[in-house]
Amino acid sequence: MDNGSQQESSDLHVHHLPIVSVIGVEDHTEEADDAAVDYHDDGSEGQDEVSNKRMKRHTDDQIKHLESVFERCTYLGGNQRVELAKKLGMEERQVKFWFQNRRTRKKVATWVDKRFIIIQGGIAILNMMHDERQEGMWLQEENDVLHAENKVLKEAIWANICFTCGSPVVPAIPTVHHRYLSFQNMRLADELQHATAVFNMVAQDADVGLPPVFPLTDVSPLPQFGFVTGNNQTSLVIDPPSPSHSENQVSTEFANSTSTCPRLFILSGRT
DNA sequence: TTGTGTTTTATTGCCTCC
DNA sequence: GGAGGCAATAAAACACAA
């Protein structure tokens, strides 16, 4: 603050008179006299030199007393200020300035505390979000595992692989197939043998010069197997149908042939 | 010792209230 | 219009690292 502005201020606001302009004319106590000595301990120094030292830190006792009063009341009335200033040996304006600055510090401190609390709350929320996210990640991992397991089970079902023991259950079907084929082959072989014998006998008796007939080696295509689900039951279907086996018979035979795998038996029985 | 950042005291300008 | 509050700021005092 330059002296020019101070002078202007002194002209406009009487209550803003510089401290050095009033110190020495007040009725100081002993402490106030000490403070005044501090202000003027330059002795014969000029007014400009004194102005350069117009700021003097209050003593610890003064600050302690001011703090104790401030704790009880942050604003002082005129009489209170005068009495406190007298008691502490301070200028009334000094007390006023001190309370004003103290209120400002308290306001800033309160603002900082509030911000700190807000930040703490934010940190707590972030921690909660982190925990929830961690839990979500665990659930996601568990979900992935379950999905993978589900996929394996589905593939096992569709591939006819026992997901309990890992052994293929598909070979159980060829067993039925083989039984069916064996039966067919035996029947066809008998028919063919019989027909060949009859044909050759007839041809020989008639002596028509036809070449002898040899048994056919061509066989019918392998039947296709499939599952049909419905009515809470899964049935084995053979295409083309076996001329000598009903679906129930084949299904029962299939179930019996795979009965070594209890879980598959249950799956094939009910859905 | 000195430069630099922080704290404390004091000032200024503007505002509201009585 | 005077008294006093507040925000912004100046300046002195202080703390501390290099």
TrEMBL record:
Keywords from the named record: DNA-binding, Homeobox, Nucleus, Transcription, Transcription regulation
Name of protein: Homeobox domain-containing protein
Domain Homeobox: 49-109
Natural source organism: Oryza barthii
Protein location: Nucleus
CDD domains: homeodomain (cd00086)
Gene Ontology MF annotations: DNA binding; DNA-binding transcription factor activity, RNA polymerase II-specific
Pfam family, one: Homeodomain
